[in-house]
Structure formats: structure tokens, C-alpha cells
## 1
Amino acid sequence: MYGGFVYILSAPSGAGKTTVGNLLLREVPYLEKVITVTTRSPREGEKHGVDYYFLSEDEFLKKIEKGEFLEWARVYRYYYGTPKSEVERILSQGKDALLIIDVQGAFQVKEKFPNAVSIFLLPPSLGELKKRLTLRGEREIEERLEWAKKEIPCAKHFDYVVVNNVLEKAVEEIKSIMLSNRRKAAFVFNNENYQSLHLGEDILQVIKGEDCHGNKKV
Ligand code: 5GP
């Protein structure tokens, strides 16, 4: 068994992707978040190795040189990057990798993994986005809103778009996208990912042992 799916979740800052991401991680089996690297300093409560790997700019630039990132981008004034090794580790365990990254990163990942599934999370309105950023006590609100207006039109290039109006509903929608991927016959049979089907040993033996008598795609 090898190779799960790569999921890209992008959204403007304040749209709720961290909350949505955390709920997905709790509710979707086989899903693991890729901990990414940033040069910004930790917010209150954020932990190194849990929320991000917080590195200095020098350390980050060295990692770029060594080719350690699957993608990297400058967002606001900081660098952010996805370590290749993290993604490879998750996929090699047959799990799905959740990348919560900005749109620049999303485009880079899609180039390298054309089968990656990209999901754009939209806030219901710009007014609501501003409210959420303000409630969060974010420092760079105007800068983040300006950035959001540049990112939002990119939603049309993603595979899926989900609106985070009612949190539970947004999570359910993304969850159903993820669960239906794991039901793709190609995923189940080509990679021998049978475990989530909870099949009896007898039917498993039939599936593995016999060829289909019609050889057409249905
Ligand atoms: P924040 O500073 O609010 O945690 O994140 C700012 C933006 O950077 C968010 O859109 C977040 O998804 C994105 N981001 C976090 N990690 C990465 C990464 O590794 N690569 C890219 N391209 N964006 C990232």
C-alpha cells in the first residue's frame, strides 16, 4: 500500500482555514497535516513543531538553497515553505497530506502533483472577513484584506470551492470531497488500499484473485 492524496487548502487569512483544517484532521481518517516552515514569529499559543516550524530568515534561505522545499512563497513580509520530506513521509505511509498554504504555493504544488486536490475556502463576504480578522486581534488587518482581494479571484482555478459561512457545513462539504476520493476504484484497487472498505477476507480474496470478464471502463 502506498500513496495517499495530496490536498491543498487555500483561503485568505481570516477565512477560517486553521479551524476548518483542525476539524478535518479530527474527523477524516488517514488525513495528516503537513507542518510547514515560516519566518514569522509565533502568535500566542502557537508551538514550534505543531503549528509551524518557526525559523529565522537565514535558516529559511539555507533550506531553499538545499532544495528542501516542495514549494515556498513570500506572503506578507514573511517566508513560508512546505518541507518535501514531510509530504513524502505522509504519502509513504499511505495517508493523505493536508497542505494549508497560500495560492502561490498551491499553484507550485499542483504543477508537481497534478493529481493533488485543491480546495479554496471562501469567506461569505469581505465584511465578515474583516470582522473575523478584527476579532482575532490581527495586527496587519488592512494589509491582509488587500492581500485577500488578490487571492480571492484565484478561487476559480481550484478544483473545489467551499464557503465558510456555517463552520460545520464547510467541514462536512470538504469531508465529503475527501471521503469520496478514497472510494475511487482506481485508488482502492491500483494501490491496494482496501483497509478503509472493511471487507471480509473471503471477498477480498475474490477481488484480488479474479479478473473481470468485461474489460471495459464503466
Ligand atoms: P499565517 O501567518 O496567517 O499563519 O499564514 C499566512 C498565509 O501563509 C496563509 O495563507 C497560510 O495558509 C500560508 N502558508 C502557511 N504555510 C505555508 C507554506 O508552507 N507555503 C505557502 N505557500 N503558504 C503557506
## 2
Amino acid sequence: MNFIFLGPPGSGKGTQAKRVCEQLRLLHLSTGDVLRDAVKNGTELGRKAQQFMEAGELVSDELIVGIIEEKLQAGQLDRGFVLDGFPRTVPQAEALKEMMDKNGKEIDSAILLDVSDEEVIKRLSGRFTCPTCGEMYNYPNKMPRNEGVCDKDGTQLVRRPDDEEAVVRNRLEVYQRQTAPIVDFYRSESLLREIPAEGKLDEITKMVLEVMKVAQRRDYY
Ligand code: AP5
């Protein structure tokens, strides 16, 4: 099972990918998480990516495609995957198609999580993350038991620097300009499935799983 989760920043790609991957035992590959780890660890990739990420701009196609290619070649995507945050430009979508063809794999569906800009801004201004375990919280929807502290390991929660409102607005513009065109790319390949993604988490997860099940035409759960 190989899927792509598409959608604007804050549409719930990461949240939903984590839920369905746990349930279906798929690999959840978030290029944003790979880049954030690289920044945290001060690697060359992190140094190249940091200023683009903090400004809400995209990192170069070459760097990102290199990450995916490396994982494919290492066999890390063999057991099925959900790509979260990749592809994000038409050249990335074309490169993915080429890599998949070369490795005898295919994408089952590209699932678009549809939310309004107002909802994105509301969600991202309330997002806090645990820098130790990655657990995500959202004020006022998913509050930690003790304010500002992770329920799982007691670490002080942090905000992503790119969740400042001005940066979020730029990320939304970048999404419209550079990422929205890949919706047509997957529509023309008959792989696009759209899900209204405002509402209760469980209900959205149910819709996502249903779409995945239909795309696979196999009963996994
Ligand atoms: P990335 O980390 O991919 O950020 P993004 O796409 O902007 O997405 P987010 O992680 O902000 O949101 P999400 O859709 O995953 O939503 P989430 O589940 O977290 O990329 C960051 C940067 O890295 C980019 O700007 C770029 O610089 C670089 N980059 C990454 N990939 C790249 C690529 N391929 N090419 C070039 N550059 C790349 O949810 C958000 C919040 O909403 C959470 O607090 C959550 O709890 C809450 N929430 C979720 N669902 C609901 C709901 N139904 N109701 C209420 N709240 C909800």
C-alpha cells in the first residue's frame, strides 16, 4: 500500500498519517520531520534547509528528491508507505513517478485533505510539539494535562518557528503557487481522492481509511 497525503499546511497530513500508519503498519515518511531532525542535529542537510523552512519557503527539489531516493534504495519503503509533505512541486511528483517505475512500485492514491485558510491559521497558532517524542498538542482541542508540558515524558512543549502567523500566511501562498498544481497532476493520473478535513479527528481518519481500502480493493481491517 503506497499513498501520498496532500494538503495545505495544517490540513492534518501528519496527524492522519500517524494514525493510519499505526493501524495499517505502514511507514510514515514526513519530509518535514526528516528536515527538522537534520536542523536539530546540525547536519549539512539541516544547514542547507533551515533558512528556507523558517521563512516558509520550499527546500530545493534536488535535496528533497535525494532524501526519498536514498530511502527507496535502502529498501525502507518496501513494506508500504504514506508520504506526508512529498511531493510538493510538479518536478517532485514527476521524479517520484520515475523512481517508482524504476523500482517496480506504484502509488495507490494521492489523498487530498481539504481545509480552509482560516482553519489552517487557527490550528497552527494553537500547535505545540514535544521536542523529545514528537507528540503534538493543540490549544484548545488537544491540551496537555499540565500546561506547556508533554503528557508522555514531561518535556517543555515548543512551537515550530514556521507557525508564526506571518510565516503561515507565506506557507499558504507557497502552497497555492507551487504545490496546488500537483493536485491536477494526480487528477490526470486518476489517482486523486479528496476528503473534507474539517471536523472530528476520528471521523476524518475513518474517511481516510475508507478511501485507502477502496484504492487497494483489499480488506486490511
Ligand atoms: P511540513 O512539516 O511538511 O509542513 P506542512 O506541510 O506545512 O504541514 P504541517 O506539518 O504544518 O501540517 P500537517 O498538514 O501535517 O498538519 P498536522 O497534522 O501537523 O514542512 C515544513 C517545511 O519543510 C516546509 O515549509 C518546507 O520548507 C520544508 N519541506 C518539507 N517537505 C518539503 C518538500 N517536499 N519540498 C520542499 N520543501 C519541503 O496538524 C496541524 C495542527 O492541527 C496540529 O496541532 C493538529 O493537532 C491539529 N489538527 C489536525 N487535525 C485537526 C482537526 N481535524 N481538527 C482540529 N485540529 C486538528
